[in-house]
Please model this.
Amino acid sequence: MGKLIISVNTKEMILKSYEMGADEVVISLNQCSFNGLKKISLEELDSNIPVSIFFNCCIFPEQIDEYHSLFEKIQSLKIQSIYFQDPIIILWAREFNCLEKCIYRPETLVTNQMDANWWYSRGLKSVSISPLITLEETLHMIRNVPNSECVIHGHLMMSYSKRYLVSAFTNHNDLPSLRNNYDLTIQEEKRDGHMPIYEDENGTLIYTDFVLESFNELPILMKKGISRVFVNGEFLKDEELLDALSIYKQIMEEKDVQNQIVSFFEKYKETSYSKGYYEEKTIQ
Amino acid sequence: MRTVELLAPAGDLNRCKTAIRFGADAVYIGGQSFSLRSRASNFTLADIEEACLFAKEYGSHIHVTVNMIPHEEDFEGLETYIKELERVGVTAVIVASAAIMNIVRKVAPSLEIHCSTQLSVTNAQTANFYHEELGINRVVLARECTLENVREITKASTIDTEAFIHGGMCVNYSGRCTLSNRMTLRDANRGGCAQSCRWEYRLFEKKKEITTSKTYFTMGSRDLCAAQELEQLIHAGVTSFKIEGRMKTEYYVASVVSAYRHLIDRILEGTPLTEEECNFYQKEILKGENRAVCNGLYTNERGDNSLILHMNSDQEVNHDFIGKVEIYDPDTKSFFFRCRNVVKVGDTLEILSPKKENRNFVVEWIQDEDKNYLEECKNPMRFIEMPVPFEMEPGDIIRRISK
Model:
């Protein structure tokens, strides 16, 4: 059976997620993680509880010593996986003999089996398939890429900027700072959806207005042999996240959850659930 | 004397030849497939072959963008295409996919592989990783690098570096933005970017709107102009300096390439540029630009002043493109061209000629094809003649410097 992975916003959610059936729990650390999860400091973590980490910043020359040292420090934790997108992490992982824990997840760049297999053959634990491709394309990749992972749930990262876009706006308009604020959204003038936007010291991120869900697709992914499925925790309430996790776990155990799915959508009808790009092929 | 490469964009064969004539050491172009600017990729293989032959005459080179992030179906025909690029004399391909890099090495080993800025290389170790594991020959640095970053990466890298010096900038890390995918289903990583970052947005904190009808949230970036930083970039050891803009006009290509050519040649003379000289060259470069510019993130780590926070550009265009010389008659000391903008007797025009200082003259008379004298020509593409007090060549660019 494949592994069920979830990313969470708080230390408390780590244990709760394991209790609910997660096989791995991913957190964001101060400094080296660049996503919309709330950050946890290294000191807060219990070295006896297994955890996975987003080490996914673009790393600039002036950050190398600090991040290399942080990378060394996390080796003292019970690390299950390290998610990265800058290949400098492969070099550090070779140095600390932890390449088999590393997962290449550049969000947008792995859209075909040849690229995925090239990265996997560096000795990595897994490669995360881009959620920008259709279900059919995803299934093709799963069949042809060993141990691949795909995101099945959550807001999807839509853009990633080094610039402080929110601060540029607030400064320009003499407004109070909105840095590190998890309650911000933007809405395109002619469209309805509200897209979470988040700025911290690493820059600015924008996520999709919709929340991907794959309750009906997970059995199909499992049938094709998916090794790892990922639930994104960014901008979702803990209860909603755990409810989704529970349903996915039961689906993986081949339990009948149709009634729970109906109840889930009724309970969270305010959330814009969507099938993402599963049936929508982007054009050139 | 050290040489560096001025790398210009071209959206078609005409603009490619113009870029080379005006001093580009290399031109990057896109074929009809596999490129990231689908609307700017008009080069057939025959065009690419002609571009290579033309470039060879001038000691210049052709680079071809094969920088899409491919889906499974995008590999169809790729090997044949890559082999053809090698056969027709292309120097390098610009690539963003490890799979495509491997294909290039396998089927066209004489082609150089330049790692696209889509892969956001921001440190030397990563550049060296791609060199060692995929055999790349050059890395195009992420536009998020500061001048100091460029210096350090270039020094510690085992391969050549290429840096952007002019043109449009993505506000997000290249290759990591899917705003266009979501808004329009056009895949930004396969040539379909709709520039959704330049649209207007409303900003909310929970349910409360922070924007007003006068203060829309926008993310569009000003264009890059690194004229002030170019001397330092050259001294940092960067090999190639890239101008963005395969969608831009022939006038833009001629004007911007010509100005950067003069600036680079001046820097390579060896004595430091004075502030006055630097300002002069920047002004020349901006004659071809009609969008607001900034120096990117080179001296301002977060590009604080690099965003367009209102919809109107603050840059005024003060030079109009009038046309391109088609015929020069040394006997009558006059030239013929198709007029692109209004021109009248008494206007001062400036001529851009490859490898020459710009020259001005005042329009004394204008004749149409039937030899009728005109006070002014208002009709676009009308074929007209006017006298000029110096020699010219077909292809020279004519622009107005006073209205």
